[in-house]
Amino acid sequence: MPLPPSEGDEHPKPYFLRYGTERSSDPTIRTVPAAALQPKEHALTLLIPIAFLLAGAFAVMTILARNLASLGRESDAMWEQLQATRRSRNDVMARITDAARANGVDDPSALQAVERAFADAQAAEDPTRAAEADDALCVAHRNLLDLIEGRASALLERAPFALLLEDLGKLEDRMTTCKGLYNNRATMYGNAGRTFPTLLIAKQRGFAPRERYLPREASDPLAVAAASGSTALAEASPRIMNAYMLWAIGLSDTVLEEAPQHRTGR
């Protein structure tokens, strides 16, 4: 029998849900079998952990996508810094070439080789072409320094020319640093884009591996000092050599070669 309305209730509730298996003759009572609710309860039990897993996967992929984009921006920034240093070094090389031409070094083949290599180096925008152009420029410039030593040795003793050689040594030192930093970021970016699960979203995020800057003919400041006989540059050679060993050997070899192994080991 339905319960009588309590005092103060103007409109008694005619419907309510009763769980059980009994049937009632009262039309105001609906009976729902308990077994009918079991499929819905099981579905809800499965949906809750699935929703948590999807939310966790979305959060992880978002973090990985942001990390990939950050490494890409850092690689681009390091490349721009390396390019700026290359342009400064090339300008100093051009001034050295002009000084050599103005002081009696008139070998057409040597001067033209430097000018062609200089133009190619200035036009190179990607790391591979830049490395090839810098190789040719370094070889041509060293040949020019040999000519200066043989035909215009008095030029080496002049303060302005010695300062140019010193500036060249400092820029080569900075080039080594920038090269190590860029190659490090480029390698980290490439490894991140090829590692699961980041590779699942790498293509949609515009992932494109960065080329490494690997010139074969490193323009070593020590070679410039040996060719020029510049006292100022020779005195700076311990500092230059320490920086070269630190970045070229310590950073480029150790970090760039061992980092992929550590990632694989994980």
UniProtKB/TrEMBL annotation:
Chief localization: membrane
Domain of life from the UniProt record: Bacteria
Keywords linked to the UniProt accession: Membrane, Transmembrane, Transmembrane helix
GO CC field: membrane
Coiled coil: none
Pfam families: LemA
InterPro entries for this protein: LemA-like_dom_sf, MamQ_LemA
Segments passing through the bilayer: 43-65
Compartments where located: Membrane
Membrane topology of this protein: Single-pass membrane protein
Family to which the UniProt record says this protein belongs: Belongs to the LemA family.
Official protein name in the record: LemA family protein
Organism whose genome encodes this protein: Paraeggerthella hongkongensis
